[in-house]
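User: I'm preparing a small set of examples for a lab meeting where we compare how different chains pack in three dimensions. I only have the primary sequence for this one, and I'd like the structure in token form so I can line it up with the others. Please keep the answer compact; I'll paste it straight into my notes.
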Amino acid sequence: MGLSQGRRAALRWGVGALLVLGTLVGCSGGGGKVSAHAGATPAADAGPTSGPGDYRPPAALCPKVDFAPLTAAVAPTAGPTKGERTGSDPATASGAACLQGFRTSGTKVNGRSIVYCTAWKDVAAAIKQYKDRLSSAPQEARGPVVREPGLGRGAFRYENVKEAAPFRSDLRLLVRDSNLECEVQVQSLAPLTDQQVTAAWPAMAKTVRALLPELRS
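Assistant: Understood. Below is the structure token output for the 217-residue chain.
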């Protein structure tokens, strides 16, 4: 399958990140080593392998995403949200993304939270994409990639280093539920503290957990 539609958008938004952060306030609103313990490698999640799935491609995410948990865990928001449609091949997958800037100190925007959600054409395609991301995550991660139980039909999280520049911290959570793939990223130009990172993970999971019912067909 190659890169997911949401991941292509993530790479595109990563280019010129400093410019994006610098102009975010003026933007209009838009609306893996996988283990529970470091070193272990559980099997990929089980799930139905046929049928179109429970989700239609979301046209807009910003009206549905609640960034409050991430604001409380990481840093105050800065400026309005910025939405974008994703998916170069709607016959295969398409969706939407929402970006929210934040500031860890001072008045300048120096980080962002992004949510990407992509509806694949059927459940089998979503499972394959999830497994592909699962297998590639060890090459992208700093430290262990951890299983996130009880979230969708499968979820994992890790700190990305391969595609992080220019960010010093790049936290990622990937979730699959039926034919839907959602990814939350928290990225900061200044390194996040251990306390911020520890608080960010459950906040990212809470954000997706609240979002999934809003997107279900």
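A couple of notes for your slides: The first strand starts at residue 34 and ends at 35. The beta strands are 34-35, 82-89, 93-102, 111-120, 141-147, 154-160, 169-177, 180-188.

User: Perfect, thanks.
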